[in-house]
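Section 4.2 – Deliverable D4.2 (structural model, holo form)

The reporting period included a commitment to supply a predicted holo structure for the target in complex with 1,6-di-O-phosphono-alpha-D-glucopyranose. Inputs used:
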Amino acid sequence: MQTVQTSPIEGQKPGTSGLRKKTAVFMGPHYLENYVQSTFDGIGGVQGKTLVVGGDGRFFNDRAIQVILRIAAANGAAKCIVGQGGILSTPAASHLIRKRKADGGLILSASHNPGGKDEDFGLKYNGPNGGPATEAVTDKIFARTLDIDVYKISESVDIDIDTRGMTSLDALEIEVVEPVADYQELMETLFDFGKIRALFAGGFTMRFDAMHAVTGPYAHAILEGALGAPKGTVMNGTPSPDFGGGHPDPNPIWAKDLMNVMYGPDAPDFGAASDGDGDRNMIVGRNAYVTPSDSLAVLTAKAHLAPAYSSGLTGVARSMPTSRAVDRVAESLGIKCYETPTGWKFFGNLLDAGLVTLCGEESAGTGSDHVREKDGLWAVLLWLNILAETKMSVAETLDDLWSTHGRCYYSRHDYEAVDSEKAGAMISALRAKLPALAGTSVGGLTVEAADEFAYDDPVDQSHSAGQGIRIAFKGGARAVFRLSGTGTEGATIRIYLEHLQTDASKLDMKPEDALAEVCNAAREVSDLTALTGRVDPDVIT
Ligand code: G16
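Output (structure tokens):
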């Protein structure tokens, strides 16, 4: 064992989902070692503890795991449970932490961000509940990065993480496990696999785009294996270190191949995609894209059709920028809908306290109390279970939602790699305007209310301020502004646009037409172009 003198490295502040940086930054001298040691110190040490370790297979995943194991051994950890080949999807890692009653886990991923030597890498710590570290723990980890002076690392040859079974490093026991089996077993307890199998056997067709990322092995085993969907149902199903050179973000822009199939002449009944680490999902029917906000509303309305949720939901939660479609469904069910800041960690307390059963976000995350992460394949299986019961198409399912609850037209505009100072200045200027906005007219719309979202956690009473600016307009429109917490280059400005339409004759508009007014109002009120030099968004989803 070696004790290495080190000194703090600037900028190791974890964001919405752990620490994300360019891969080359993580590979720099002492960088990863410092962060891992700071994490271990921040959680009160790992002496005698059991940790789950795995990642999405991106470039540097395997090397980083070797470093983590050596630091865990030198710090006296008792055991590490590692996914074979270093692979574990984020929800599978969350499940393993819970199933094995581990003390926590380290998940290596930059999620939907591209992977490779010149792309992104990330590392996050999840606690014993299987969920992302709370704000309090994240603060402690960050505080340690500011005064770290030594890290401890074992001197050892590489550990074989490609072969299942037990091995060891000094006194650290290492168990290499097959990554899919435990997760699949959990899914079989939640859903009616027999019904879904019968659906496929009856000729129902599907494409699942794994985007060359971690869900490939899970989707092959579950969809094509256990559920009997024909071979070829899973596209891009072999994980690659650079995700086939693509951007593993399941939205209509980056999952273009799947969108082309679903809007093409021989479109299957159902399409879905998942991201780099398997926690996000996109749902699309034949000629029918489902926004993540509408997906959450549909799942809330119909979850009772799946065995795990047959006795109903205790409550639901959505992140603040997510559309209010789910609020309307929750109201009709007589259950509470919580509004939380962006970041899955905020759902953890509500799930642990049994206040909510389902939760979701506009950024393509949906999940339930079965793990403490969002779960891409879970959402796909819940959709399949619902369709197997209702025998409705995806388009009919959406029509049913909109005609019952109204339609929340929704879109997110992203301005990427904006100069950080300019982006910050734009948000500050908007913040300064908020007190005087109500009642004024902006871009032809009248402002009803304007504020900056702050959250008081009903479980641990923590207070989170500065969680995004929201402006509600008369007539059902809303614009939300926030800076991304997951980008790795400059700042990403996100503008979320929404318009609730309850007029039955206006439920079939093109989203861009339904949102044109609120889009203009958002640009005008934020002075976006004058303050950042940007005109058109880089990505519209
Ligand atoms: C992470 C969090 C999500 C959150 C998203 C927001 O997602 O886990 O809960 O919605 O970040 O990203 P941003 O701050 O860029 O808007 P993931 O999938 O990247 O882990």
